[in-house]
Amino acid sequence: MPTIIVCLKQAVDVTELKVDSATQRLMTADAPRKISDFDKNALEEAVKLKEKLGGEVIIVTVGPEDARMVLREALAIGADKAYLLSDPSFEHSDTLAISYILAEGIKKLGNFDLILCGEASIDSYSGQVGPRLAERLDLPQITYVRALSLDEDTVMAERSLEDCHETVKAKTPVLLTVTKEINEPRIPSLMAIMKASKKEITIWNAENLKVAKARVGEVGSAIQILEVLAPKMERKKIVVKAETVGGVAEKLAKALVKEGVVGR
Amino acid sequence: MSEFRGVWIFSENLDLMLELLGKGSELADKLSVELTATLVGHNVKDQASKLIEYGADKIFIVDHPALKNFYVEPYTSALVQLVQQHKPEILLIGSTRRGREVASRLATRLETGCVPDCTELSIDDDGRLIMSRMVYGGNAIATEVCRVKPQIATVPPRVFEKLEFKERKGEVVEADVELEEPRTEVVETREIEAAKVKVEEAKVIVSGGRGVEKKEDFRILEELAEILGGQVGNSRPLAEDRKWFTEWIGLSGHKVRPLLYVACGISGVIQHVAGIRDSQVIVAINKDAEAPIFEVVDYVVVGDLYEVVPALSGALRKLLKGG
Ligand SMILES: Cc1cc2nc3c(=O)[nH]c(=O)nc-3n(C[C@H](O)[C@H](O)[C@H](O)COP(=O)(O)OP(=O)(O)OC[C@H]3O[C@@H](n4cnc5c(N)ncnc54)[C@H](O)[C@@H]3O)c2cc1C
Question: Is residue B208 within 6 Å of ligand 1 at its C-beta?
Fold first, then answer.
């Protein structure tokens, strides 16, 4: 029976972001947080495998203390245990540092068969944490997985690339990153939510994990962010109106010809 | 002075490699260093002369039957050894799905950073590589630097232009590296039918979203696209949920920059808008007057696409024929 680890990120809900029009800065501090979309697909896939094969689903996340909220939701969706790797010194870690913290946490957990991650997070969208973690744990990896099956110690995965779909075989343990098309994440029932409130969330800090201070947080990160600004998108917003659809079409057609963007 | 020197590029995709050379030569000139292409694969040797024509001063070739199929382990190991031996200060990697996974593993093995999907790259007065990319689902552009060398950036297709320099000389070196064994096995590959015209190259794009009810209905969009000498495109749900297409436009899909983008039945969620931002003129047709797409377009048409699109085709056909 497989032990499946799901790496999950508490992400900024990017659809709820507001821009401070004076400074063009995003008000990320006020934006709501949620389980990053593709990570939810990873979790759903893990829970489905557990329902079929038995075993255990363990969630691991690096984040602030309040990431407990998303861990509760993940437990309600069907994970058995949750580990929150949290320490003030972890703040502002880039993917180099995050993958190091995750790897140390997962080593401490012991044996496993699969690690599932989302293809990327919805807020920083780097797509690096999965492969970086595979590298740190010296695992084979299969990225952009759209269908998955597990039989004993063999994984069959269909991955989606720009020009083809590949069916890939690997022996466990293996790390996979999944796309949104792999499944439709469930919404937990009230019963499941109540049950999940009894499940345990373990918090490990820097000391528990014995991580090197120089390798985490801002000092342990290779990337430094100089600036984050909302792009200006000034458009004309001309409303094309007329009595009839034909009239609208004619007006629009004329305007486009005048713009010089058609008939070239 | 730092022991790291030179700009390097890598992609498993030749076209993208040429685009990286275009940008790479600009960065290398600014730093007064060599531009090196790493040509890794099977039966790739004969591409070397082309890479030189497009700007490479030097080429490291790793040509081996074990590289016939793309597996992350042998490719990463080849690049890691080359980088460790020669210490480039900048490494640009083509941002395909394969390229990104190699870049991530490589950056980890080298204990350095990697900024993905850069849409702008430049060198500042301190000689640092300044990298910009979209974050927060397209809501913002982040400008980043890498404090460790090599500085690694991945670059999506068709963001930078190829530059042909013609008659140039370059040095070609057959590299001696050990290739790691793959740890996965591809048992089947199914090609995806490639579109005739690449959507990024189309001058006009008529795009459909979830407002298009049936796949057959794309005919009316195709008709409009044809009149305009363009191509059809679509939002992500039509590919992922409805499986009508294999590609889409937006943050996680193609970034386009046509003269004209016509969005039909697309709501204007930020992840879609992120991909069309550089279009010269944007038209949206949506029956919901409150659709967010109307905030980011030049021409707002509140109406049913099933009526407006054919009418627009008719009107344009008349106008363009007459003109
Ligand atoms: C990390 C991440 C990355 C993503 N990347 C992308 C991406 O790259 N590209 C992308 O497109 N999406 C992407 N998405 C998905 C995105 O969030 C939206 O779900 C998607 O863009 C919505 O597509 P839509 O506008 O076609 O559909 P909807 O949002 O459902 O909008 C349909 C619109 O059609 C209108 N409509 C309906 N019928 C008619 C009619 N007869 N005539 C006129 N109008 C009509 C409706 O009023 C509505 O506004 C991403 C999501 C995430 C989380």
Answer: no
